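> call design_seq(struct)
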């Protein structure tokens, strides 16, 4: 009789432990429930890096006047700094519009430089020095990585604010941590560094690596980035080989 009572107590204790664990541990992962808004310091550092890379480009490849687009990017960046603390929906929408505008301006500046570089390579007016050509191409390529990381970060599940609110159940990008809960912490959710990694690997491998695009816009955006990266690198490498070989 005593053994049966003891066994019953042990079962009740195990049941209580399981119930306590279930209550303490959230049923939904962090990326699907409301969480604190993401810090903007990583985004700020990336945009400042893009501005610095644009200022290092030769004047003939920059959007004229050379200071205009970097100045607009810095202005929008200053406006975006309080975005993490915005509370009203109207303010949040306005700040997201500024963020998309910032990504568009950086895209415009870098696209302009890339077009001028490619046109110069095709016509033979660019690439007189292999070292200068490679440095210019690297600056444009790195800026391209930052640009697309901004687009991915701003569009995935409605942007950083919408992701923090957990308002979208269907992701545009499927990260490995979303599929294997036992391989990551319970509070994991994608941040800008994750989108920067996606952009970098897509620009180097010309295809998705560990993170898969799910929505049509995500697939088209990754295809556009891979195409730009492949075209730029192919022409630059070919021209550099000709210069060195000649």
């Amino acid at each position: 009789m005593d053994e049966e009572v003891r066994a019953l107590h042990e079962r009740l204790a195990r049941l209580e432990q399981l119930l306590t664990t279930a209550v303490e541990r959230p049923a939904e992962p962090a990326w699907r429930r409301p969480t604190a808004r993401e810090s903007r310091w990583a985004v700020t550092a990336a945009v400042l890096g893009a501005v610095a890379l644009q200022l290092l480009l030769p004047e003939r490849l920059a959007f004229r006047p050379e200071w205009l687009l970097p100045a607009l990017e810095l202005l929008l960046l200053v406006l975006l700094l309080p975005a993490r603390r915005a509370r009203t929906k109207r303010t949040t929408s306005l700040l997201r519009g500024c963020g998309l505008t910032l990504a568009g301006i950086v895209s415009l500046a870098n696209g302009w430089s890339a077009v001028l570089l490619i046109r110069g390579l095709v016509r033979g007016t660019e690439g007189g020095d292999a070292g200068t050509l490679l440095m210019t191409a690297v600056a444009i390529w790195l800026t391209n990585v930052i640009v697309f990381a901004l687009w991915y970060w701003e569009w995935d599940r409605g942007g950083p604010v919408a992701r923090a609110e957990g308002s979208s159940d269907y992701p545009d990008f499927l990260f490995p941590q979303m599929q294997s809960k036992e391989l990551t912490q319970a509070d994991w959710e994608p941040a800008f560094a994750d989108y920067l990694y996606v952009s970098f690997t897509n620009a180097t491998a010309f295809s998705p690596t560990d993170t898969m695009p799910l929505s049509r816009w995500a697939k088209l955006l990754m295809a556009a980035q891979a195409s730009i990266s492949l075209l730029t690198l192919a022409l630059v490498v070919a021209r550099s080989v000709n210069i060195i070989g000649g």
